[in-house]
Amino acid sequence: MKIGMNMLLWTDYVTLELQPIFEELKETGYDGVEIPLGEGSVAHYTALGEQLANMGMGTTCVTSLTKEANIASTNPYIRQKGIDRLKWAIDRAHALKADVLCGPIHSAFAHFEGRPPELEEKKWSAELLREAGDYAKQAEIILAPEALNRFECYLVNTAADLKQLLKAVNHSNVKAIYDTHHANIEEKSHQVAIAHLGSDLQHVHISGSDRGTPGKGQIDWDEVFEALKAIDYQGWLTIEAFSVAIPRFANSINVWRDFSPTEEIYKEGIQLIQSKWHD
Fold first, then answer.
1. Is 12 exposed, middle or buried (0-12, 13-18, 19+ CB in 10 A)?
2. CA gap 215, 179 in Å, rounded
3. What angle do CA 37, 228, 165 make, to 5 degrees?
4. Interatomic CA distance for residues 198 and 113, integer angstroms
5. For 206-250, how does the pLDDT look when each residue is reduced to its tens digit (9 = 90+)?
6. Looking at residue 63, what is its pLDDT?
7. In a 3-state reduction of DSSP, which class is residue 211?
8. Are the beta carbons of 61 and 36 closer than 8 angstroms?
9. Which of 96, 209, 252, 257 has the highest CB neighbour number within 10 Å of its CB?
10. Exposed/middle/buried for 229, CB within 10 Å: 0-12, 13-18, 19+?
11. Largest CA distance in the chain
């Protein structure tokens, strides 16, 4: 098990200038960071990956699709843009030496058609995730699509939805991420949801019910960690929390206030993980 910190608490575009934050996170006990991929060249991420590797810090990545680049779209041109975007992100994750690329990569984030998902949309998503899995396999990266709550996504909301998608994809490099924030809204039981994902679960976001400090919201962390231990989970436990530090990003995800002080989030968050994991 490794503990990570998602850099979206500070920025949506990580640069070499964030070295002091990397150093603070390493000193606090983190094994690595999660890098959002929205812009930037392969050369940029190669340099960033080398900087983090020299510090002994591992990396994972997170990205998303848009309505203009959506592998579940009814428009074949937009579906092609979607797979192109996934390959773009895989190239940059590989440059970072990341081992996981996670996020809502099964369909467009915060885009709705005014109806439930159709079978064709799920089929297109699975087919193109399988193609992306082939591309990720060459880069030695696990793709981890994420179930999002109903207010941010309509294609995959629950662990059961995600498991169904993974069965359709049927690829060794396409697995699952479990996010405790989304699950707190959509699942009736963390234990049941995590057990249902089982060995397909390759990444976890430790995220508060309000996206603030893990441990200060309404999530039953004892249930979460007991369920992870029950399936012998051995991947990353990465804290994902948000702030208004970057207005452009905050506005895009409907974050209108800081939920907790930044230092409290990463310091108390790691204490929660360490204490629950070793109970």
1. middle
2. 14
3. 55
4. 31
5. 999 999 899 999 999 999 999 999 999 999 999 999 877 878 777
6. 98
7. coil
8. yes
9. 96
10. middle
11. 51
The DSSP secondary-structure symbol of 194 reads H
Report helix, strand or coil for 79. Answer: helix
List pLDDT tens digits, range 180-214: 999 999 999 999 999 999 999 999 999 999 998 99
> Where is 268: in which H helix or E strand?
helix 262-277
- For 98, which DSSP code? -
Torsion of CA 187, 191, 197, 202, to 10 degrees: 110
CATH code of 100's domain: 3.20.20.150
> Which two tokens mark 197?
């994902």
Number of domains in the chain: 1
pLDDT value, residue 253: 77
Give percent of the chain above pLDDT 90. Answer: 91
pLDDT of residue 254: 77
**Strands 100-103, 2-6: pairing kind:** unpaired
> What pLDDT, in 10s, does the model give residues 140-149?
999 999 999 9
Q: What is the mean pLDDT of residues 41-50?
A: 98
List the structure tokens of 59. 């990396």
Range of the domain at 102: 2-277
